[in-house]
Amino acid sequence: MSVLELKGITKRFGKFTAVDDVSFEIREGEVFGFIGPNGAGKSTTIRAIIGAISPTSGEVRIHGKPVAAQPDYRKHIAYVPGDVQLWPNLTGGEVIRFFMKLSGNDDTEKMDAMIREFRLDPKKKCKTYSKGNRQKVALISAFLSEADLLIFDEPTTGLDPLMERTFHHHVLAAKFEGKSILLSSHILSEVEKLADRMAIIREGRIIETGRFSELKHITRVHYRVRTPDDLSEVGRMEGVHEFRQEDGEAEFMVDADKVKEVLAVLKHFELDNIETLPPKLEDIFMRYYDAGSGAS
């Protein structure tokens, strides 16, 4: 079942097109990654979803119905931006309890547990908080909400690695509860760990959508080879990148569509060991943003 569906969302600011014909859907109980560099159109798309801006054209649907026909559709959404601003004279705990009351959640035991996990001092006023602590207040509030669609826009900005892991844990817990998560980020490894499917946005347009396994056709395979032979011939082959060899070990990347040709050449060498490393999301991403890739 589709929880969120975008149909041809376009947003223009004067002559500038920030988002161009963006379409995708997020299903129930799914983590959907939305990746691209800063300025690619991620935040503009999200602002159209939450109603902060009106799209120039296209339609946003929640649970199969246009949001225009659902005046209260925002009750389904909890949104955390990359730079959270809070009421300066309220404490973090007061802000969290306020949002819990709005969503109808009175589970203070769960609230206390989450505050401990995120290592937040809830008695301090928000004006004293660092960026990371403001982020924690918003994340805790979102995870405690009754919303069935959680939208995170660069959510781990300002968090240390330990808190990032805590965030990842609660994303997966929310997914287990049947909630849907839109995770917008330029941190590719974060999306790779959490997302069931993803969309790559470039200059306001979606250029690929699918599961990571379905995107391998645009990636490269990383090889590590132990051999006494000189593999420079392999390094000169079409589709081979970042070749280097020293002390009897060679490493290189191979375009997915050139793997068969490279392996056919490798079998003529004396190989002590060959290791294939799984393709990374970074490889997919860089293929599209490499100026020489020809992607559009």
From TrEMBL:
GO terms for molecular function: ATP binding; ATP hydrolysis activity. Keywords: ATP-binding, Nucleotide-binding, Transport. The keyword Cell membrane does not apply. This is ABC-2 type transport system ATP-binding protein. Pfam families: ABC_tran, DrrA1-3_C. Belongs to the ABC transporter superfamily. Gene3D superfamilies: P-loop containing nucleotide triphosphate hydrolases. It comes from the Bacteria. InterPro entries: AAA+_ATPase (IPR003593), ABC_transporter-like_ATP-bd (IPR003439), ABC_transporter-like_CS (IPR017871), ABC_transporter_ATP-binding (IPR050763), DrrA1/2-like_C (IPR025302), P-loop_NTPase (IPR027417). CDD domains: ABC_DR_subfamily_A. Residues 4-228 form the ABC transporter domain.
